[in-house]
Amino acid sequence: MNEVQLLVDCLRRLNRTCVAYYLTGSMASNYWGIPRTTHDLDFVVQMPMSAVPRILEEFSGDFYIEESAMRAAYQPPHQFNAIDTRSALKVDFWLPKPEPFDREMLRRRIQVSLFGEPAWIATAEDVILHKLIWNHISPSDRQLGDAAGVVAVQAEALDKSYLRQWALELKLSGGLERLFSGEIKPKQT
To answer: Tens of pLDDT along 124-179?
Structure first.
């Protein structure tokens, strides 16, 4: 099973749970920007405690997933994962933090079709901001390259006032302006 097959499989499972979610991380930046190989998937799931059994049931069997880890995700770092036993690829699930930007990302998610499956995905602007956040937490040329790829591909379609507003609030304005100026370039794959 490759990353695309795993993505389709996970989308089908998440759609059956009826839990609000969106795709983020490298697969989302691949959708909006310049694709690169990735070895995991990242989803944000709005998972009330009552949804734990539904998600566990959907991912049991073909995935190694622990109920205790799912329940622990209600505390920082608000994350659990599932390992696909067919490929050993990892799926990271993040619960949205009760912070304004996390709430806004969930509110702004959009539905698209990915490889024939309905999917909720973070907007291009939110992917850029999220990549800048991750780069701030743990500096990485990969995060910046992904963000630059989205800026390069989406260009004039981006809501720059939205980006600048949130970059200011999140203290990411310097990185955003470096992206806009072309100082940070997409990585060549």
So the answer is: 999 999 999 999 999 989 999 999 999 999 999 999 999 999 999 999 999 999 99
Q: Answer for the pair 75, 91: CB distance below 8 angstroms, yes or no.
A: no
CA distances from 7 to 18, 24, 67, 171 (A): 17, 12, 21, 32
* Tens-digit pLDDT profile for residues 31-72: 999 998 887 899 999 999 999 999 999 999 999 999 999 999
Q: Which residue matches tokens 């780069």?
A: 135
Output b/e per residue, 141-168; b: 16+ Cβ within 10 A. Answer: eebbbbbbbbbebbeeebeeeebeebbe
Exposure class string for 104-128: b at 16+ Cβ within 10 A, else e: bbbeebeeeebeeeebbbbbbbbbb
CA distance 160 to 48: 33
Six-digit token string for 52: 């734990």
Tokens of 50: 């009552």
Compute the distance between CA of residue 27 and CA of residue 37 in angstroms, rounded to an integer. Answer: 9
Rounded to whole angstroms, how far apart are CA atoms 10 and 5? 9
Residue holding tokens 């990485």? 140
